[in-house]
Amino acid sequence: MSDPNPYADDSYKWGPPQQPGHPPTVADGQGNGQPGPGAPAYGYPQQLPGSATQPGPGYGYPQEQAGQPAYGYPQQPGPPPGGGVPMLAFGDITVMNDQIVTPAGTMPLKGAVWTATDLSRTEEKIPTVAIVLAIVFALLCLVGLLFLLMKEKKTTGFIQVSVTSGGRHHSTMIPANGPETFQMVMAQINTARSMSI
């Protein structure tokens, strides 16, 4: 495996003719776009300029700014900027000890006005399975009609939570998963109202 190719003769070497003992170099005038004399052909290896051999961050590894961790690296969990500990959260509204944090900015907690609007609805219908079973068993006996008493409840919609404080206003929508969602949100709103006094 380490033997040279026995079929190769040393009379011809691939590539442009080179002077013995001199590796190909960057051509004269290559920096300004004009090839110089003795420029190597396109695609052949060339020595890198000195600026390219300087150590630096590789692609995808951002430099760390002063006091700021690099983007994309896992961060240590901690309180959000602005201080305080998160107490409550309504969608994208977070209530801290002394302030309310929203995508629109921060608001003071003292004097905040909270509102909640129920925009959900609960529908009750007979499921398809009950109708099919009622038809099948109605032919056998009248007991199959009892399957029509099966009901299915489905809640759709949102609960809108709004906060106004310090001349700012922000609203968020919380999906309603069931008929009890509005009562749970109202319990949290009442806690936020008591903290705002």
Defining key terms:
197 residues, alpha+beta, four-stranded antiparallel sheet, three-stranded antiparallel sheet, 7 strands, flat
What does this structure look like?
This protein has 197 residues and is of the alpha+beta class. The protein has two helices and seven strands. The strands form two sheets. The chain has a four-stranded antiparallel β-sheet, covered by helices on one side. The protein is flat and about 100 Å long. The model is unreliable at 27-31 (pLDDT under 50).
The helix fraction, in percent, is 10-25%
- Characterize the overall form: flat
The number of distinct helices, counting runs of at least 4 residues, comes to 2
From the N-terminal CA to the C-terminal CA, the straight-line distance is 85 Å
Biggest sheet statistics: 4 strands, antiparallel
Order of strands in the sheet with the most strands? Answer: 1-2-3-4
